Amino acid sequence: MTKCRVAGGYVTGKSHIEKKTPCQDRTYSKTHNGITVITLADGAGSCKNSDTGAEIVTKVVADLICNNFTFLFKKTKEEISKNILNEILKHLGAKSKKLNVKLKDLSSTLLFAGVKGNQYIAGHIGDGLIGYYFNDSETHVKTLSEPENGEYANETFFTTSNDAIKHFRIYKDKLDKITGFILMSDGSYDCLFDKSKNVLKGANNTFYSWLGDISNPTEKIEQALIDNMKEQFITRTHDDCSINLLAITDEEFITTEPVFEEMKIDANQLANNTQNIENLQKVVSEIKNELSNLESIKSDVSKISKTQKDFAKITTDLKKDLDSQQKNIDKIKSKLTNKTSQIDNGSNELTTIIGDFEKWKRKTNIIIWGLITVVGVFLFALIKLIFFS
After folding, report:
1. Which fold has domain 4-271?
2. For residue 246, which phi and psi values (nearest 5 degrees)?
3. For residue 5, how many other CB atoms are within 10 A of its CB?
4. CA-to-CA distance for 145 and 168, rounded, in angstroms?
5. Residues 253-301: pLDDT tens digits?
6. d(CA 351, CA 364)
7. What angle is formed at CA 27 by the lines to CA 69 and CA 33, rounded to 5 degrees?
8. Using CA atoms, how far apart are residues 184 and 40, in angstroms rounded to an integer?
9. How many whole angstroms separate alpha carbon 353 and alpha carbon 315?
10. Nearest-CA neighbor of 239 among 350, 154, 178?
11. Which residues of 191-228 are buried (b: 16+ CB within 10 A; e: fewer)?
12. What is the pLDDT of residues 154-212, one digit of tens each?
């Protein structure tokens, strides 16, 4: 039977201390049926009950693996992830109903490693890191599972994500030279992983050496982990920090790292990602400025859009007025056409009357001249009769 020792702990980060909110990281370990499991979960910062969700997840997964290690190990990685995720969601769903909150409010990441005999099963959803120790004349530590982030650096995946199954990474194999595992949340990852060199720092080996020495009580190691995180980690990151360790302590196992009477790590054993954090903060600040500029542009575009709408309304109203005036003009033209036609008809009638008058005038003249002639003849005859008879 494989003999294992475990030690872990979590501390509240600066941002949560300032906001007076609880630590959202949780660690848990269990040994049962010759199986030892360590788990770690980091609650989603934007979810109000994520610390509760993290606590549930760590315990549910440890219980499930301790009770079903052999059954799960025989399954495919896809089947293992489905089994574990279904169990997680069942318990989170029940808790969300009890608390009358949304399932999303219980969101967290998940990291775990379980050992039985010469076999191990490990799993990972979200950020944080799983490392493994192996003995090759001396103890080394390497990455088993890297952080997985979303589109942006501060985004990750959770046990409650709709596509959680796609991001659930399962690892299973024989231990062979593997002598232990370390789980760390993203806050601890910032301190224990050198991002510029892509390697785990010396503090990881130091922690392991404390646990590998069976003369060190587990309680003393866990307190030392918490003290070192408070003293060293919290000054390097704003996030909560957590670590969970598992060391296989069979008789042939030999610790190659020195054991410190006072369990303190040296600052040189930690990653100095401060410059990276400062650069990231600078980038974030620049992005915020760009977003502010975009909001200003958006406001200007909105004003222009409103002006365009107003202009379009004015144009439409003018077109309506022009159409109305055009109709009035057409009516007037129609009336003028009718009047012109009437005038033309009157002119024709007048011309006819004038013509008839001219004809009457000529006839009248003829009659007058005829009468004058008749009268003249009559007068001439009368004169002649009077004076010459």
Report:
1. Phosphatase 2c; domain 1 (3.60.40)
2. -135, 125
3. 21
4. 11
5. 445 454 445 788 777 778 876 555 555 556 656 776 777 777 777 777 6
6. 19
7. 25
8. 7
9. 56
10. 154
11. bbbeeeeeebbbbbbbbbbbbbbeebeeeebbebbbeb
12. 689 999 999 999 999 999 999 999 999 999 999 999 999 999 899 999 999 999 999 98
Q: 356 is written with which tokens? A: 């008839």
Structural domain boundaries in the chain: 4-271
Please state, rounded to an integer, the average pLDDT across all residues of the chain: 86
Rounded Cα distance between 105 and 125, Å, is 17
Q: Angle at Cα 196 formed by Cα 192 and Cα 276, nearest 5°?
A: 80
Six token digits for residue 55 = 């606590």
Q: Which amino acid appears at position 294 of this protein?
A: L
Tell me 126's DSSP state: S
Q: Is 117 left (phi over 0), alpha (psi -120 to 50) or beta?
A: left
pLDDT in tens, 248-262: 986 444 454 544 457
